[in-house]
Amino acid sequence: xxRICLALxxxxxxxxxxxxxxxMGADQSLYAYVGDRILHGELPYRDAWDQKPPAIHYTYAAMxxxxxxxxxxxxxxxxxxxxxxxxxxxxxxxxxxxxxxxAAALLFLFxxxxxxxxxxxxxxxxxxxxxxxxAVTGAFVLLAGQQNRRGARVVGAGILFGIAFCFKYNAAVYxxxxxxxxxxxxxxxxxxxxxLSAGFCIPVVLLLSVFAAVRSLDTLYDATIMYNLxxxxxxxxxxxxxxxxxxxxxxxxxxxxxxxxxxxxxCLLLLAFAVRxxxxxxxxxxxxxxxxxxxxxxSRGLPQYFVQAAPALALxxxxxxxxxxxxxxxxxxxxxxxxxxVAMIVAAAIAVWRVNDFSKLLSNTVHDTxxxxxxxxxxxxxxxxxxxxxxxxxxxxxxxSLMRSATQPDDRVYVFGFTxxxxxxxGRASASRFFWSRxxxxxxxxxxxxxxxxxLLEDLERTSPAIVALQRRDWAPDVQDSAQFxxxxxxxxxxxxxxYELTNGPDGFDTWKRR
Length: 515
Hints:
Layout: H1 2-14, H2 26-39, H3 54-66, H4 71-94, H5 98-111, H6 128-144, H7 150-167, H8 173-184, H9 190-213, H10 217-233, H11 239-254, H12 258-273, H13 282-297, H14 310-324, H15 335-355, H16 358-372, H17 378-384, E1 386-387, E2 391-392, H18 393-406, E3 412-416, H19 421-426, E4 429-430, H20 438-441, H21 452-463, E5 467-471, H22 482-487, H23 490-499, E6 500-503, E7 509-514
Helix pairs in contact: 1-5, 2-3, 4-5, 4-6, 5-14, 6-7, 6-8, 7-9, 8-13, 11-12, 11-13, 12-14, 12-15, 13-14, 17-18
């Protein structure tokens, strides 16, 4: 059985290898740009403004220090998937349910493959939630471990929960789920609460000290708390609306994602098993925490928000399946129970086939494989990863190439839009710390010096970028599209027309060159 599981896991990982040729997505290019600026000695938020908490930027700085190539995003995502699968296997062993751990690991590798999704999953790979999933799974493994070195394990779990928090603050709910898990396992003590809290604080304090040392805690607070509260709050009319979304979205997502289908069914079965053994509630509590974390992000339904729930859903499905199988629970098996278990496995397989789009998985994997072996041109390959509404990988590459060829290495350039990958491909720094447009368009902190239209204009006048590119389609109807906003804002439009002239550029951008 072990050899079969290893063979299946190997096959599922091999199926993900073609994704290494994918370009980075729009969000990932934000993180990559900030990561590059960190490697140049600059500071997030003060020198390159993004609303994500600091951990993702320092992670991308480390990734690009090792390999400054688009493929490092997909590679990091692949390594995170391997880590989650291994940790789920370890978690099963720690809970004396190795079959459940093996089933959860295989389900995770199979059904969390981003290639099932639109644009071959390019938007999902290497997101904050990818690394949150690894940290939280590792924390549960430590909490579930044997009693030897228990204190160190609890501190380590706290550190991992703290790391997850540093990727996104809403991930703090997982620490509460960890406390509930300890209670369900009848291991919770005041000492454990103290050790878990102390561990949680270690990475948080270390990151805060970085910004405190250069007196930039206010910029950190504005970007990662004030902006995100506003961004999330835009999607809810009130507390009742939040609760409504929290209850509805798991059901809605189960209709389009088989991991949510199986994980949700597993949670329902585990609730029934918990009458006999309350430890069966641990995966349910983990899934509930993931749902709460997703809802705190807002009700936009962005696909990356749901990535963090994948290990918990896989564990719920695997654990329920193991308990259903004859001999898997505390009661013995029998012909009737075996037939029921087989029928449920068949039903689950049919549900997976009907919910997930296997033709999309095949098409995306074949395309990446063909490019990897030289059967598809670079432009054709990049064109596949283009979202007509917000982001085109091909246009980002073409704009970056234009900026690189038309400027000197020390020149500054500026892209007012959602195409930060152009800076990466050009090897040029942004003329403003607001290297993407939405914070300016949304008027965030516009009344404060250094923010809004006034802050952007100050940056542009000081740095005098060699090229300015305005993205035509990116944010509407959420807020105005970037080019429309820029040219309908008199101070920005007057500055641009006074010093720049239109030139040829990639489709989707109004490209201006300094006179």
